[in-house]
Design brief:
The structure is a single chain. The protein contains twelve helices and eleven strands. With 363 residues, the chain is an alpha/beta fold. The strands form three sheets. Strands 1-2-9-6-5-3-4 form a seven-stranded mixed sheet, sandwiched between helices. A two-stranded antiparallel sheet has the order 7-8. A hairpin with a 4-residue loop joins β1 and β2 (12-18). The longest helix is centred in the middle third of the chain and has 21 residues, at 212-232. The protein is globular, with a radius of gyration of 20 Å. The protein binds nicotinamide-adenine-dinucleotide and glycine.
Length: 363
Amino acid sequence: MIEVNVELKDRRYPIRIGANILAASDSYAPLKCGDKVMIVSNPTVAEHYLATVSDSLQRLGCQVESVLIPDGEQYKTLDSLNLIFTALLQANHGRDTTIVALGGGVVGDVAGFAAASYQRSVRLMQIPTTLLSQVDSSVGGKTGVNHALGKNMIGAFYQPCAVIIDSTTLNTLPKREVFAGLAEVIKYGAILDSAFFEWLESNIDDLVALQPQKLQYCIQRCCELKADVVARDETEQGDRALLNLGHTFGHAIETHLGYGSWLHGEAVAVGMLMAADLSHQLGDLSRQDVFRLEKLLVHANLPTVSPDGMTADDYLPLMMRDKKVLAGKLRLVLLKKLGQAYVASDNDAQQVRQAIENCSQFD
Ligand code: NAD
Ligand code: GLY
């Protein structure tokens, strides 16, 4: 088992990464004998892993209960949050309880926000079971739910006491979800670490095949990179925004198509290429490096062109609703070179339009 620490100003917490670690009671520290625990999961994940996690915690001497929220982004809502609160109240959980989020990013975000707000906050442990949640959403404390008028519009920064990543859980994850997670993995290389980007170029086929050692190293490196960014900028006043490479374009795709049509990682893949194209137009990223990014995304079975029929006129109004828009100015994460990103705040609309068109397929 490998441990990566997230060092915050006033505290730290461990990310434990390993194979089959959910079956070992000592993976779950700081939980200990006598602790009360509410596991939050969904029916899909619970079928595979709830018994293993419950048994390990019971062997540790914890008093364990569980509540399931429905599976899917459309259930990342206040209603699901309320289901968790009801279960906690019905079972008399007080401020000394611990919420354990067992699932992908949806469960992690909802359960995390439940922990941030139940009785003005209780302890949270994250057990992410998708590649996206293992390399991104479970680390760093962003929690929340969607509102009918916008994604992730209600939430809080609330850090877990520990993150437990069992890489073998990815064996039951649908392949398309694995590929979508690889988009976020590739993002870390592109924005922060050119050596990791090169490593990905050499090892992408093994990652697609879920080769255990490569997968563990990949998760570890992403967690180290994210932990470092979060340590520098817990509440996204600066550098943390770099983690959004491709996301402003990608969110426009997700909103235009309706959530659930393209997966988040798929939309981010195309968005990263648009950002790379714009970076090239600005004279920063070489054409060859744009191709390297495209090739890596193709090897990860990710899309590299805009959805059929979606035009620049569809993107631009949606992009202006992004949380990074300040005083009516579109701010985009762009690349100086592979491994070095920055936030560009004065983007030329014509160049943005061109980048979108360069990544679109016309008949
Ligand atoms: P998800 O949670 O919807 O999981 C994808 C699907 O895989 C679901 O059907 C789920 O039940 C299933 N699943 C999960 N683990 C499984 C396993 N091991 N075996 C079989 N099936 C499994 O999707 P996601 O991609 O993990 O997360 C997306 C969410 O994460 C979005 O709501 C997004 O906003 C959020 N997110 C949050 C942050 C953050 O910093 N908090 C960062 C990125 C994304
Ligand atoms: N996923 C972006 C962040 O955690 O800031």
